[in-house]
Write a structure and sequence with these properties.
By secondary structure, the chain is of the alpha/beta class. It is about 45% helix and about 10% strand. Strands 2-1-3-4-5 form a five-stranded mixed sheet. A two-stranded antiparallel sheet has the order 6-7.
Amino acid sequence: MKIEIWSDFACPFCYIGKTRFEQALNEFKNKKDVEVTYKAYQLNPYAPKTMEGSAYEAFAKGHNMTVKEAKDRFKMFEQNAKSVGLTYNYDIIQMTNTFDAHRLAKYAATKNLEDKLTNRLMKAYFTDGLNLADHATLEKLAVEIGLDQTEAKEVLASNKYKDEVQGQIDEARKVGVQGVPFFVINRKYGVSGAQQKEYFTQVLEQIWKEDQPLQTMNDSDESQSCNDEGCEF
């Protein structure tokens, strides 16, 4: 079974969805026969490399809402994250561009470390408040998870993996991705949003037994996902 996951490091439901999916996968009896591949996606390709003001102000401005509304929205994200053992610190989050972080992740994939780096980048963004557009920061995170510092620095200083990242972002539209996280299984099934662990378990077991045409399996009551216009509950 092949599972492709489109996500962005700056997407609150992507981190939550990845965690729930992994909880289900770890309990799946056929886990050893599941191949997981990460695909790049950007919720805001025009995000700056350095954020001005607070995350609340930046989000409010970008989504045409008040700062108070942004704080209320973030509180919901924080509560959802806490339900799966994650900590979101919106007081210090830096909403910056994630394209170079995605390029670094593609380099990590050549070393079989993309999953590990993906987790570290998401934690860096949501918990540690680090700037994922800053090359020095990305370099340190790469070294933390076992990548070569010199190679990571060379990747970030160049345009390496640019076409691969952009290609995956473009590919998302072709396979019907309208929000992330989005899970494509065997190129026959699509699972949209940060579904509950039990739902992922059901999907894994069902698809293991069946072979049906491509369809989006988001008929549960909780289809939490983010698109270019915002994050929905």
